[in-house]
Amino acid sequence: MADMKASITYSQLRRYFWLAAPLSFFVLGLGQLYVGRIRWAAYFLVAWVAVAALLLTSVPLTFAGFAFAYLGLFSVYAVAGVHAGIIAWREPLIERRAYHRWYVYPTYAVIVPGAMMGVVYAVVGLGGYHPFRLASDAMAPTLRAGDYFVVKEELFDPRYVGEVVAYRRDDETHVHRLVAVAGDRVAVRGGRLIINGAELAVRPLCRVPAFPDGRTVEVAEERLGNHRYAVQNLDEGSDFVREREEATLAPGQFFVMGDFRDNSMDSRMLGAFDESQFVGRALYIIWSDDRSRIGRSLLTDLPVVGKDHCPGVP
């Protein structure tokens, strides 16, 4: 009996399932290291890198693809945690390995997460998908202050006219709608946008409260090319620029405007921007205080639905 106890004490280790699972949730593969399955730790790390590589593809171009890619990363953690817990439950006594020395665990817990973070930065940078948070209501009602959305880095393309785009200004990233490109004639009259002599088609939808003092805004559908989107204007006059004489954009320039036309500092005041300042296109909303907006595409060419922006409208 004494020999058996000595054998268990010196050549075997007792492992607990309630500790094995959390270890792999904390650091991927650490639970496998704990239960003596270092090869499985390598398998899970390779699986995680493979899922992360999806961010280099076109999969995240849609919200469903984005959710699939990011949930896949978390799923690898979940499966690894369950796997480590089951191993510890079924085999509480394991053979002592060289990597079970105490200093291996903190070393692994530092090196592996650091390497994984490097992979994340690499694939996010190369894939060009970046989350942003909107700080103002300049793009309301399409985007609201506090909304998180994904921007795909792209080279400037005139075909993006009508889309929500990101660009650099004063070392900061700003988001507005691209309404005109080089060679276009742009004018604003009475708050209405005129491109190449033609006023954009506008379909009124409703009036909604927008400020604590009771002021309301008119919400309408505006159409630019194949894109249809919601814009809003104050019912009464505002201090924002509602008039702009027609001017032709020079080569390499683009013109942007906010969807909240009376609450946006854009090209009407600041002038056109250079294509070198262009960052990319906004794809979809990934988080919003209004849960119904999560996953909404920002690239749709479908008619604007009144109930999305007008309370009480069926």
Description:
This protein has seven helices and 16 strands. The strands form four sheets. It has a seven-stranded antiparallel beta sheet with strand order 3-4-16-5-6-14-15. Strands 9-8-7-13 form a four-stranded antiparallel beta sheet, with no helix packed on it. The chain has a three-stranded antiparallel beta sheet with strand order 10-11-12, with no helix packed on it. α2 (17-26) runs antiparallel to α5 (63-90) and α4 runs antiparallel to α5 (63-90). The chain folds into two domains: 2-127, no CATH class; 130-308, Umud Fragment, subunit A, CATH 2.10.109.10. The radius of gyration is 27 Å and the shape is elongated. Residues 1-7 have low confidence and may be disordered. It has 314 residues and is of the alpha+beta class.
Return the CATH class of the largest domain: Mainly Beta
CATH structural fold name of the largest domain: Umud Fragment, subunit A
How many domains is the backbone divided into? Answer: 2
Strand content: 25-35%
| Extended strand count | 16
| Sheet with most strands | 7 strands, antiparallel
Whole-number mean pLDDT: 90
Which CATH architecture of the largest domain would you pick? Ribbon
Measured as a percent range, the helix fraction is 25-40%
Low-confidence stretches: 1-7
Q: CATH H-level name of the largest domain... which superfamily?
A: Umud Fragment, subunit A
Number of helices: 7
Strand order of the largest sheet: 3-4-16-5-6-14-15
Rg (C-alpha, Å): 27 Å
Distance between the termini: 79 Å
Element order, helices and strands? HEHHHHEHEEEEEEEEEEEEHEE
